Each structure stands twice: as C-alpha cells, then as structure tokens.
Amino acid sequence: MAERDPAWKVLPKPSHPHDSARLHVAGEARYADDLTEPADMLHLAFGQSSEARARIVSMDLSEVRASPGVVAVYTAADIPGANDVSPVAGDDRLLADGEVITHGQAVFLVAATSQRAARIAARLGRIAYEPLPAALTVAEAQAAGSHIEPAQRMARGDAPAALDAAPHRLSGRFAMGGQDHFYLEGQVSVATPGEDGQVHVLCSTQHPSEVQHLVAHMLHVSSADVTVEVRRMGGAFGGKETQAALFAAAAALVASKTGRPAKFRVDRDDDMVMTGKRHPFDVAYEVGFDDAGRLLGLSLHLASACGATVDLSPAINDRAMFHSDNCYFLPDVEVISERLKTNTVSATAFRGFGGPQGMLAIERVIDDVAMALGRDPLDVRVLNLYGPGRETTPYAMTVADNVAPQIIARLRTTSRYDERAKAIEAFNAANPVLKKGIALTPVKFGISFTTTHLNQAGALIHVYADGSIQVNHGGTEMGQGLYTKVARVVADVFAVPMEIIRITATRTDKVPNTSATAASSGADLNGMAAHNAAMTIRDRLTDFLARTYSLEESEVHFTPGGVIVGAETLDFAQVARKAHIGRVSLSSTGYYATPGIEYDRSVFRGRPFYYFAYGAAVSEVVIDTLTGEHKVLAVDIIHDVGRSLNPVIDKGQIEGGFIQGQGWLTTEELVWDAKGRLLTHSPATYKIPTASDRPAHFTVTLWDGENVEPTINRSKAVGEPPFMLAISVFSALNRAVAATVPGKRALPQLDAPCTPERILKAIAAFSA
Amino acid sequence: MPVRFLLDGEVVELDAVDPTATVLDHLRYTMRRTGTKEGCAEGDCGACTVLVGALEGEGVAWRAVNSCIQFLPMLDGKAVMTVESLKNDTGTLNALQETMACNGSSQCGFCTPGFVMSLHGRTIGARGCDLPVEEVIAGNLCRCTGYGPIIEAGEGAGSCEQDDTRVIAALKALEGSASGEWRGRRWFAPRTCDELAVLLAEHPDARLVAGATDVGLWVTKGLRDLGTVIFLGGIAELAAIEESDDALTLGAGVRYADAHAAMARLHPDLGELVRRIGGLQVRNAGTIGGNIANGSPIGDGPPALIALGAELTLRSMAGRRTMALEDYFLAYGKQDRQPGEFVESVRIPRPPADAVILISKLSRRFDSDISAVCGAFALRVEDGVIEEARAAFGGMAATPKRAGTCEAALIGQPFAEATFTAAAEALKADFEPLTDVRGSSAYRVEAAANLLRRLWLRSQGVATSVLEAVDG
C-alpha cells in the first residue's frame, strides 16, 4: 500500500455530535452499573487500613463473616497468583500483605448479597496494627530520605556559571497541590465467571489490556483466559488509567473463587480515599536574567509527593521536566526532579501527566522575573519564546513547528490585552477592596507517550455483506469523542455516511496488547490504525472491482454518491455483497506505530515527542482583599488542534480542560490530616468548579493551521494541552494580589490552589 | 400501608418499604430505570436529579431533588419524573434534549441526565427555577464540558407549559399513607402538628426527617439504621409562610427554595445567603427547621437569623415554648429540645428600613459549598450612633454563636470607621475557632474580623464583593 496522507478526501468537513449524545440525554447510554444484575450477583467492599503505615499484627474478621448478607471474605492469602495491581513496578497490592502503607488501603475484601451489606460488614474488621514511622508530605519524605527512585537531572550548558554571570538573579519557591479526578462515574467493575477458569470483566478503565494482564497474573491464568470490555466511561481524566485495576482484580477474584458474578461499584468517598490523584509539587528555583528580562540561567528543583508506590510516577515526573521550558528557550539550565515516597495514596496519571506542574513552575519563574523588573509579564514571556536560532529544548529536541509566537500575538490583539491591562490599573487605583489582575500565558505540550513503545495501536474493521461496518480499536471512550472521531475516519475511507458505521465496545478479545487511552494520543494512534485497517479493505475492494470489471484500479472511486466503477455507480452495499460472493475478505486489522520518536532517558536527550500542540489564554480575575474570595471574570483562548477532526468535540475538550485546570488552581484543595487521612473525600468538602464558576465571558477560537507531521487528517491531539491554559488564572491572581501594594517590584508568595485563605495570606505577606 | 406514587401516569404501589431505602436505589436497581445516576450518594453532584411533583393549591408543584438522599416514604402521594419520562409520545427526544445532543452538552454523559432534569424543571416552571441558568444548575456537577453548551441549551430552552391535568387527578386519588413497618422498623408520616406531638410523645427516640439533606447521609455514608422515623413532609402547617409588616414567620418544614423570595424581601443579603445555602436540589428539600434542629455549627441559616433577632417556637404535647434562637444552641451537638418536642416555627422580625445589615458567607466555592465562616450583623444607628448591634457567626465555634465582645464594642459608639476597626479587634476575643478542612483558625479569625470592615466600607458605597464586579 502506498504511503498516503490521510486527510479528509471525500466527505465534507466534519462536526458530528458525540456518537452517544442522543443516548446520554435520554438516559439510555449504558455504563457498567446499568446492566441488569443477575440474581446471584455479589457486591463487594474493602476493609480499609486505619493507619498511614503499620505492621499488621493480627486480623480478626469473624464479625465481618457473621454480618448479614456476607458470602465470602478474602485476604491476601486467598489470592491464587500475584498479589499485584501495579502498572510497572509490581508494588501495588490488591490486599495488604503483612503491612499497610497508606490510610484507606485495601486490607480485606468482602463479598455480600448487596452493596450495603458489603459496606456494613467491611467496617467490622478488627485489625491490630503496630504503627511505623510515616512520611506524609514532600518535606517529611525529604527529611526521611524516602524516594521511589533516584532524582533525575536534565541539563544543558552551565547553569551555575550562567547564574553567576547574569546581571540579575533571584530565587523563589512555591507549592502546588494535587487534584482529585472527580470523574462523575466512580470506579466500577463487573466480573463474570466463564467456563474452564475464564473470566469476563466489564470495567470502567482507560487501559483494558493492563487490567486483563493484571487479572490474569492475579488469578494465575493466561491472558487468553481473561477478557476485559469497556463501552464507555463516565469520565476518567487519567484516573482510570491504572486505578481501575484494583477493583477489577477484586471483582475477578470473587468471581473466580465463588463462581458467581461480582460487581465492585465503589462508593464515592471510598473512591476518593483509595484512588490516586495528581502529584502535588514543591518547586524551588534560582534564575539569572538581563535588564530586559531575558532568562540566562535557570536552576529548577521539582519535588513531588508520589505516594506510597511507584505507579506511573517516573514518567509523570519526566513529563514535568520536559515541560519546565514550556514555550521558552532556556540557554543554560538544570532541572532536578526529586520523586518522594510518601505514605499517602499513590499519585497517578491526571490530564497533563506532570506537564501542568512543570509548566506552572516556569510560568511562575517568568512572572517573578517580570515583577522584579517592573515589566509586563507578557512582554517578558514574548522575549523568551523559542524562535530562530533559539529552537532547541533542554532535552535537545528541535521545536520545529513553533506557532506559539503567532498565537500569542493574535490573542494579544483580539483580547485587547494591553488596553485591558491599563483599564485594570485604573480600576485598582480606584478600588480599595477589590483588585483585578490579567495574564496571558501560552502552552506548548509534547504529544507522544514518553515511554516510546507505548506509541502503537491496533484496530479491527468488519464490513458485512449488507454494507454495514463495525469499527473496533484499542482506544477507550471516556467522553472525549474518540469513538466519533475514529468512526468518521473510517466513514471517510469508504465515503459512506456515519450511520453505516456501528461503533463497538473496546474489548481485549478484539484488539490485543493495547496501550492506555492516555497522553492525548487516542485519536492520533487509533485513528491511524483504523484508517490503515479500512484502507486494507478498500484496497481489496478496489482490486476486486477492477478485476471484475476489467478496469484499471484508478477507474474505481469511492464517493459519497456511491462507488464509481468505470461507467457504473454501485452503492456500497452492492459492492460489499459482490465482494463477499467474489470471496474477498471483508475484515481487516490495522496497525500504527508513531514514527520518528526516540530518546535516551539516561541523559534526557532525544525526541520524546512526535510534535507539539500549542495554545494561549488570557484570563482576567478579581479578588476581594478582605476575604480572599475571587472570581474569574473573562477568558479568551486560541488553541491549536491542527486541522480539526471535529470542531465541536475539540472545542468541548478545550473548554472542559480549561475549567478543570481552573479548578486545580483555585477551588480544588486536598487536605490530609496529621495521621495521613484524606479529609476532602467527598464533594461536600472537595470543590470542583460548578456552572457559576465558569467565567461570564469565555471565548474559544481554534487556530487555523495544520500539523506539520502526517498525523490523521493533519490533526493534533487535544485531550491534555488545554488544561494548562488555566495557568493564566494563577498568574492573573498573582498580579491581583500584587496590586495591593502598587509599585512594589516583587511577586506575591501565593501557593496553589488559590483558596480564599491562601489569597488572604499572600496579601498579608506581600504588604508585610 | 403501602407507599404509593405516580410515575409516568402509573401508580407504583410498594407494600413493604424499607423506610430509609433511597429513591435512587429503588429507581435503578428495582425498577431498572438506570438513566438516573449515582455520582456521590450525598446530594452534592446532581447526577441523580429527578423531579418530584406534589399537589399544591390547584396545581402541581414540581421540584428538582437529589434522589440519592430522598427516602422512599417521602414520595408517598407524589408524582415522579425521571429522564426516562421525557421522550415525546413518538419516542423522540424533547426539544431541550435535542439541543443538548447536538451542541456538545454531553461528553462522558454520566452527569447529563441530571442536567436534563434540572433544565427540564426550569422549562416547565418547577419551583425555585426563576434564576439564571447557571444558578439553576449550580447543584449539578460536570467534570467534562466546562458547562458552556449546557448553559446555552438551558438559555435557549425557554418555557414550555406542561399539562398536569391528569397528574392532578391521579394525585388526588392517591391518599397518602400515615405509617408503615418493615422488618421491625416503623415509620410515620403525620399530617398535622397535633398528630406529630402525639407520635413524638409515644416515640420520643424517633428520628425526625424533614428534607433528609443531612440525615440522608447518615444512611448512605454513615450506614446507620435510623430506627423509628417520622417524616415531616406531609404536615401542611409546618410549611406555612406568614409575611406581615413586622415579621416573617416560617414553619419549620418550609423548604429553603420556597422561603427564598420572602427572605430576600426581608433583606437582599438574606436572599443571597439562601441562594447559596446549597444547590437548587438541596434548597428544594432542605428546610428552615431542619437546618436549625440539627444544630450544626456550620449551618448557614442560624447565624443570619440570630443576628436578625429570630425567635424559635418549639412544640410538644405540653404546649409551645418560645425562645431566642441563640438560646436553642447549648453546646456542640446539644440543643435545647426536650423529649417529645419538635421545632415548629421561626419568627424573624422585619428589620427597619434603615437598619445596617450585612450577611456574608465565606467558602471555597460560591455555590453548593459549606461555610468556612458565616457572619451576620444587624445594627440600628440613630443620629450617627450605633444604638443596637447584633453579630452572630457560624463556623467560629461549636455552635452558631453571638459575638458579645464585638457587639459591646459597637453599641453606643459612633457609626465610624474607627468603631469598626475596634470592633474587629474585639471580635478576636469572642472566638477561638478550630482549624479544620474548611479553613484554619487564623483565617477564620481574620476573615471574620474583616467582615466588619466590609460592613463599614459597603455602607460608604465602596464595592466589596467580587460577585458584583462581574459586570464592572
């Protein structure tokens, strides 16, 4: 098959609604908990650790077993295979074995005839612990020398020398909190036992293959004996990349041991306590710069609380390092990334995957430099952008497709940034209590899994003899519209209407050995794999029709009006029927591996990303200097999705990503107590943005461009990059706080999230 | 006696009902109506929103509520509408659904049925919906969309008269049950205060349930068995609102959404506080009396009512007892309610037109959040001198509490900046608040003191609220 540039050839520019939208609004879209429960279904709950770190001295589960409705109670000793639900390191236990390493950790498993019965029984375990010293924060773990892996270093040039030589130099530190995913559908898995040791797991997961492999190892059966299926998730955001495995494995264990179907539908509070979150980071920096604000030397220290196990923390912290340049050229730079092991629930993937933390760090450095010089931070940003002669990242990748300068310039004009900045100065001068701030910040986000082998995908397409088409691929649908985008790619290959395409659930028995739907890569990888599968079938059809009608292949065309075969036009169903009778295979797999990427983690050098996605946002905020309350007033965004696969869906990702980022930096505060217990374990105390937090003025414009790389339709990934546009809110809040002391050349000490309490504290410290 | 309710024109009759089974679980796992979702099971996300209709006057009052913390007997004699009820007779989507399906209102779709129900409620004129769309849906959380298309769909939906003739007829035929028993657990649903007084005398340990916005969590999260339950929702007297020139008297069973207009007329700050007391689904269930009776130190109603000089009336077989509201709160978790007594009403004197009032709730998020600090002040100023001052706070102590030292620093002093500076300083002697999940002790003290400054500056015409800066 010849190399093709897979851009829309036939069908008009797409903007199909989400494939399930009509089912969503009717309440007819089925999630894992919506399927009719068999009469013998068991429901599960974990007995959880009450200690952050302790040795289990004894366990008395007699009251648990005696509780009404309880059918079975299991501990680590009951697991037939590996007691492991970890993605990489083998250190996440399904059930605690001898010791607990976080509060809330699963210690034993209860199967009962109802969810309530299981939850009541799970609270009746009598476990004696011998507490061990626990580290709960970055600082405590640093003091204890507790790490999940050695610190990593990425450097170019001689940062210390550049710092020494710079005309100006300043240092700073700040902290940013983690974030709960708060997917609206909690973790849920339904395991159904099959014959001869097989098990089927319906699971709300971004990573069916990993769940399959972990369940197989845990049950000591082969991967071929386990099928994992997911039609859709009620949100995920990274929180179902590795975190679904715990509950899937528990359900599979019960199904396997009892021979009865088992459902683990996790209570929201338990879910928030037991599943990982975004990594909180402590950041320290030393920066050298010239009179204009150009960065000359930077020493950046990133320290994250990774929780009690490895999970995906190495790759997440790597990505934080890779994004600590954002859009800026850093001539002499050293980034040290420290990965602390804390006795809190293991931090995990979350939209942006470390990128937001690295990017927030450099944006704060820029703000600090600008404020110290008394310059508009946007001017300092522009001055430091990658550009001609300054286009190599600290990890030695060339920024080949840099549209950040143009996007920033356009947004500066369209949002009337400079005019508004002046108006805000006047407002602040006239208002003693309320202070406004404005900021424009850019985003450059690298697209590809930094673990190179994950950049592959498979698809499976069946054309039936009636002309209908089933599409399947390894990507999962969590609301991001992946299924819709991929279906559209396939419809385009055959030039058939979308209605012909039946999108089917992601299943490990259809497409094997898949990567997680993560790293924003879903459409890039699966779209291309499905395209390749469809092209294989179309090529067979073309060949068959040319042979049958004694024509050249160039005389066969798939068009929306039908398949033109020389002088005749056949509808697609006729072609399918003829091909079936002509004994042509109408089914094909497709495969895709991202080309051109490689990097050497031992020296942090290479090309970890296929390309970058860009964007910029300008946010205007107001704060109340008496209470610390704030409001985001106006947001304008220009974002680059290449040539959009679906503008409505892409804009939805951009808006939703921004608001989620706004939540991370403002209202969403995770609070642990001194014993390592998460206090914000419910929506009563953990506050994601609600409709009234959406700024009254909010515009999103897609950048009119295309990917320089031959991605599917020359599109760009869109899942994660927009999240970081919300850094503009953080920056604007800092400027609003700074406005409380006019003329002071310094950046307020404001940590994220910017709760009213933190803002009030920053105001007090700034005027002190 | 069975629990009976109306669902899509059919009477659903449940002979034996677990009195604390939730409406959501019944819909999902018994009736297989799985369109209604569980997001949190604590009334904070709105994914389980359904509309409940009750006969009121000549019509049906529909209210959006969180079905996850409504108990089945609370549906007795009512009509229910779920997302499955909305399709047209021909099986097609209604106009609102059609818009939402096309404009990107759903991504993962899990919260969507709840939004559909909240917005559908707005289109049919359900209670509490005469607000901007984003306030009607502030009790519905979406983690995917950023809300833009949903707000747009809601704004475009307009209003659509619903013909409730058949519902009215069917509800009239549904005589409510007064009691039931399930596996030894009894429940009652009295219709009058007299009946309630008798029941309480017979069952002094019975759990009183009004809107269940708090007690619901004892069941879904605390996994508690509530024992004997008395549901208050059927007592019309408790739902009475009496507005006169000198006072507003609210029955203990008045829902916040129903009290909103009258409370806003008493003072705009009180209206804003009520709007922010919880999402619409919570305001549609939660009651004035419930918010007082449970004695929460962070309940938002009491501080404002105390500052306004409200009086509480308790009732029992022995008669009525009236006290200043602040006297009801004795200590953390301990109220001055004797066995056999129930909260009957609260009377709020109408403040004079020239009263200086400020009621401020401080929380991490403006809507659907619980206070870190809730402060309320009511001053009477004559000839430039503060003659009377009442200041009360929530979140600052183990109970809603007046700030005596602060009040003393205000009374008799000139209405001037220096007075408020001194009173703010004095306030620090009134409270030693806790540090907890909602805020540190230091923040609470500082922010509470700054509310006095906010009061002064606002009286001088200075802009002091970020919510008012939105259009500025």
Protein described:
- The complex is a heterodimer of chains A (768) and B (472).
- Chain A has 19 helices and 29 strands.
- In chain A, strand 18 (469-473), helix 14 (482-494) and strand 19 (501-503) form a beta-alpha-beta unit.
- Chain A folds into three domains: 42-132 and 182-274, Aldehyde oxidase/xanthine dehydrogenase, a/b hammerhead (Aldehyde Oxidoreductase, domain 3), CATH 3.90.1170.50; 281-450 and 600-767, Aldehyde oxidase/xanthine dehydrogenase, molybdopterin binding domain (Aldehyde Oxidoreductase, domain 4, 2-Layer Sandwich); 456-593, Aldehyde Oxidoreductase, domain 4 (2-Layer Sandwich), CATH 3.30.365.
- In chain A, the strands form seven sheets. An eight-stranded mixed sheet of chain A has the order 3-5-1-12-9-10-11-20, with helices on both faces. A five-stranded mixed sheet of chain A has the order 7-15-14-13-8, with helices on both faces.
- Helices cover 29% and strands 24% of the residues of chain A.
- With 768 residues, chain A is α+β, with helices and mostly antiparallel strands.
- Chain B has 472 residues and is an alpha+beta fold.
- Chain B folds into three domains: 1-176, Beta-grasp domain (Ubiquitin-like (UB roll), Roll), CATH 3.10.20; 238-349, Uridine Diphospho-n-acetylenolpyruvylglucosamine Reductase, domain 3, CATH 3.30.465; 356-468, Enolase-like, domain 1, CATH 3.30.390.50.
- Chain B has helices at residues 23-30, 95-102, 112-123, 133-136, 148-157, 165-172, 193-202, 215-220, 256-266, 268-275, 280-283, 288-293, 301-307, 325-328, 404-410, 417-427, 441-459, and strands spanning 3-7, 10-14, 49-56, 59-66, 79-81, 179-182, 185-188, 207-209, 229-231, 241-243, 247-251, 311-316, 319-324, 329-331, 334-335, 342-349, 356-362, 373-382, 385-394, 401-402.
- In chain B, the strands form five sheets. Chain B has a five-stranded mixed sheet. Chain B has a five-stranded antiparallel sheet with strand order 10-11-16-12-13. In chain B, strands 6-7-9-8 form a four-stranded mixed sheet, with helices on one face.
- In chain B, helix 15 (404-410) runs antiparallel to helix 16.
- The radius of gyration of chain B is 23 Å and the shape is globular.
- Chain B starts with a strand and ends in a 13-residue tail after the last helix.
- The chains are: A alpha+beta (768), B alpha+beta (472).
- At the A-B interface, helix 1, helix 3, strand 27, strand 28 and helix 17 of A face helix 2, helix 3, helix 4, helix 5 and helix 17 of B.
